[in-house]
Amino acid sequence: MAPQIRQLLVLFLTSFSLFSRYNAFKEDQNHYFEEEMGDAYDPRAYPWYYGKLDDSMMVSSFQRYTVASALTGTVVDVDGFGATGDKTHDTEAFEKAWTKACSSKGAVVLLVPKGKNYVLKPIRFSGPCKSNLTIRMYGNIVASDDRSDYKKDSRHWLVFDRVDNLLVEGGGGKINGNGKIWWQNSCKINKNLPCKGAPTALTFYKSKNLVVRNLNIQNAQQIHVSFERCTDVRASSFKITSPEESPNTDGIHITNTQNIQVTSSVIGTGDDCVSIVNGSNNVQATDITCGPGHGISIGSLGSKNSKAFVSGVTVDGAKLSGTTNGVRIKTWQGGSGTASNIKFQNIEMNNVKNPIIIDQNYCDQSKPCSEQNSAVQVKDVVYENIKGTSSSEVAIKFDCSKIHPCQGIVLQNVNLQYQDNGAAKAVCNNVKLKEGDTVPKCP
To answer: What are the two backbone dihedrals, phi and then psi, of residue 6, each rounded to the nearest 5 degrees?
Structure first.
């Protein structure tokens, strides 16, 4: 009888401990949301995000939380599979560690130890996984600078492919794309070279319920981090840096992805800080610091006469300094589809060349683009509480299509000044506009 009582007592204490941890976790999460969102952000404004987090992401996060403090959690250390972190190639060791972590059951932590430099060739971490997986990138990960290593896949370096319920977190280490060798071979740097794409440093592909946070990514070969065909993503506290002259080095790229929130990130690159393209909806970007770079962009959309759809985008709380553009929507002539239900609010501009711009005549090619009869429809776009300085005289530019004019464009509490103390101007072609308290106003 005594052993049974002891077993019941152990079970009760274990259950009580887990319940206490869960309550503590919920309190930590609530406190985190309050700190990260601040008074300016109402959770009710993002029902898709909080709903998903409560129902699915909260559960998986709680599982990870209990594992982190439980003795039964499995830790897979890449060093245990032969990784040395001494600047020799560790790709094979990472592949073996991933196979172990992904195939194990229960909760698993894949650890990249701090204080080392792991050199990797292109690598694909493929799912689905049996485990509930956390990856802790505490050490430095550096891309191979031998371009011949990318013969099998010239467009990717690190890829997480179909890995659901994944938590990836940094802890002081850096992900370094070693991009210089790629930049100097770009046609945008050397006009005599053919135009070819370069690898994206970090890609999340066809994955659901992702939490990615505290990553420091620098010098990407091309795009720094891309979310492709993903659902329910929370990305926060990124630090992304590349030289201003580095070509096509977008910071965070979002394509064909639904229900994604990007928060509290500092991005300075040679291209868009955040780019949102075809097939993406319910995209929230809050507390973004951008510069240098090309600003926060929706598009380009509709290239090569393609059909494109983007909807439900909110950029709330951004600071842009010294960028080519501020908040931009760009579409090619000849495309079709819509970019709709978009809101840019609570944004500060400092010395930005094109603070507010819609360009339905975008043309990023050597030959001039011919005029065409179709366009991606841009509609229901709100600009609210945007202020600061423009480095060019034209602070607001709506260059919309003659065939499909921009519709439902609203400017409210916008105040943009020309930094040389002259009056800023607005250029507004083919736009159906409602203006509130706005400087400058459309003529």
So the answer is: -60, -40
Question: How does DSSP assign 135-203, residue by residue?
Answer: EEE-SEEEE---GGGGSS-TTEEEEEES--SEEEEESS--EE--THHHHTTSTTT-TTSPP----EEEE
Query: What predicted TM-score, i.e. pTM, was given to this entire model?
Result: 0.84
Q: What are phi and psi of 214, to 5 degrees?
A: 60, 35
Contact assessment for residue 225 and residue 202, using Cβ atoms and an 8 Å cutoff: yes
In whole angstroms, what is the distance from residue 128 CA to residue 343 CA? Answer: 36
- Say what angle helices 2-37 and 58-69 make with each other, to 10 degrees: 120
Catalytic, 294? Answer yes
Q: Please tell me whether residue 106 adopts helix, strand or coil conformation.
A: strand
**Spatial separation of the C-alpha atoms in residues 109 and 100, rounded to whole Å:** 11
Identity (one letter) of the amino acid at 269?
Answer: T
- Distance, in Å, from the CA atom of 381 to the CA atom of 330, rounded to the nearest integer, reads 13
Catalytic residue of the set 164, 232, 250, 271: 271
pLDDT per 10-residue tile (average), the chain, 443 residues: 45 42 39 32 30 37 39 83 92 98 95 96 97 95 96 96 97 96 94 93 98 98 98 98 98 98 98 98 98 98 96 98 98 96 98 98 85 93 98 97 96 95 93 96 92
Could you report how far apart the first and last alpha carbons of the chain are, in Å?
89
Catalytic residue among 253, 294, 316, 404: 294
Q: Which of 311, 351, 304 is nearest to 329 (CA)?
A: 311
